[in-house]
């Protein structure tokens, strides 16, 4: 309507003034309902053509959308396993800090597993003390056996020398018996050394391995016990949190609630038509007016343009995708931030806004090789941005009336 009014000032109005004052025709007599089309046909036709051209140019070079919102993320509160709630420390709509305990699950099984692991560690330590005592005993047995072996060897050598010097003075059976005693004592020494080595291996390898396994089981039990206490991963406010002691929490079927993190640093997420993809650039200046902030115009700047369109995403499935299912065109996602910090602090998270972007040809106009008509066209494109800015302010002025009065709220 605004574009039609502006275009009529350049077409229909001059045509009417010419016929009224230059040709002397009077409204209501010479220019009436039946002759208006015939008399003003050129002005009406030019007005319609100019209006369509103006609307197309405005909406193409200065995009607008009503799909602008203050997006925010949510954190689902859930446990890694199923359990029964034993204690709840917070309530719904309560603000929490990072690391603050939220609720605790029944931990008797984890505590029992941790106590069992501690008992095993103590048992291994006691076995190590016993093994050290056995090692001392085995060392003494080795010393005793080695001494007995030396004594038997000395006796065998002495009798062998006497028999060699005086054959018949000592019975050869006694010498052979002494030799058998030497071999038997050598076997006893080997057995004592093997027993000592077995105890040393038990102290140095077996018992430390058993202790390490028990300590690993204890660490696993401690981790499982720590998982029974659920804490806040970030600062925020609890929503849909209605846990009570005795409730069952299942990470697949029943989360504990939702944590809405504190206000993020980003601004608005807006979706513009794909036809404007070549116009929207990072650094474009824009404006928004929001339902939750009536009669306010906030200057914005484009900080990021998403390079993909969500409607074209493909997920692997067991069936082929029909291209007609993606016939509905998606939008170009744009992230906009306030030009001045703090201007959207009063906007609730998730609030809806109307956003405008304005094309600037300042850099292109610095080219000295541009011709007159090119400069005129670029200046014209920037100038008609005022139309969109005026429309946005009209929308901002009428938005509370449309919402509260005409919307029936």
Please state the CA-atom Rg, rounded to the nearest Å. 47 Å
Unreliable sequence segments:
none
| Integer tally of domains | 4
Give the integer mean of the pLDDT values.
80
Number of helices: 9
**Overall geometric form:** rod-shaped
Helical content (DSSP H or I, runs of 4+): 40-55%
Largest sheet: 6 strands, antiparallel, barrel
The CATH topology assignment of the largest domain is Elongation Factor Tu (Ef-tu), domain 3
**CATH architecture heading of the largest domain:** Beta Barrel
Query: So, the CATH homologous superfamily of the largest domain?
Result: Efflux pump adaptor protein, beta barrel domain
Distance between the termini: 26 Å
User: What is the C-level CATH assignment of the largest domain?
Assistant: Mainly Beta
DSSP strand count: 14
The proportion of strand residues reads: 15-25%
In which order are the strands of the major sheet placed? 1-10-13-12-11-14
Overall SS class: alpha+beta
Order of helices and strands: HHHHEEEEEHHEEEEEEEEEHHH
């Amino acid at each position: 309507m605004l574009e039609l009014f502006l275009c009529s000032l350049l077409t229909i109005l001059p045509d009417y003034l010419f016929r009224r004052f230059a040709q002397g025709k009077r409204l209501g007599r010479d220019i009436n309902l039946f002759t208006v089309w015939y008399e003003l046909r050129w002005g009406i036709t030019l007005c319609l053509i100019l209006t369509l051209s103006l609307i197309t140019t405005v909406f193409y070079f200065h995009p607008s959308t009503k799909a602008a919102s203050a997006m925010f993320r949510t954190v689902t509160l859930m446990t890694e396993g199923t359990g029964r709630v034993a204690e709840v420390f917070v309530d719904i709509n309560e603000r929490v800090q990072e690391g603050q305990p939220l609720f605790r699950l029944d931990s008797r099984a984890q505590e029992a597993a941790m106590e069992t692991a501690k008992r095993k560690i103590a048992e291994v330590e006691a076995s190590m003390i016993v093994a050290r005592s056995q090692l001392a005993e085995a060392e003494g047995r080795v010393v005793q056996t080695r001494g007995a072996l030396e004594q038997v060897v000395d006796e065998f050598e002495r009798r062998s020398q006497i028999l060699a010097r005086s054959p018949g003075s000592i019975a050869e059976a006694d010498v052979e018996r002494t030799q058998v005693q030497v071999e038997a004592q050598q076997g006893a020494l080997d057995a004592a050394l093997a027993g000592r080595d077995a105890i040393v291996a038990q102290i140095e390898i077996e018992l430390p391995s058993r202790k390490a396994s028990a300590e690993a089981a204890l660490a696993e039990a401690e981790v499982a016990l720590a998982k029974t206490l659920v804490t806040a991963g970030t600062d925020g406010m609890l929503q849909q949190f209605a846990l009570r002691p005795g409730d069952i929490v299942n990470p697949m079927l029943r989360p504990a609630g939702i944590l809405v993190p504190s206000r993020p640093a980003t601004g608005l997420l807006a979706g513009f038509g794909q036809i404007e993809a070549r116009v929207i650039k990072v650094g474009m200046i824009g404006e928004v007016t929001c339902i939750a902030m009536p009669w306010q115009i906030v200057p914005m700047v484009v900080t990021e343009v998403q390079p993909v369109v969500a409607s074209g995403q493909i997920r692997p499935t067991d069936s082929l995708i029909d291209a007609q299912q993606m016939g509905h065109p998606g939008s170009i996602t744009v992230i906009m931030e306030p030009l001045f910090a703090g201007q959207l602090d009063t906007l609730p998270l998730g609030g809806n806004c109307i956003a405008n972007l304005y094309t600037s040809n300042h850099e292109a106009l610095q080219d000295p090789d541009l011709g007159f008509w090119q400069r005129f066209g670029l200046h014209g494109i920037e100038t008609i941005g005022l139309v969109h800015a005026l429309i946005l302010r009209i929308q901002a002025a009428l938005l509370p009336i449309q919402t509260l009065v005409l919307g029936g709220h």
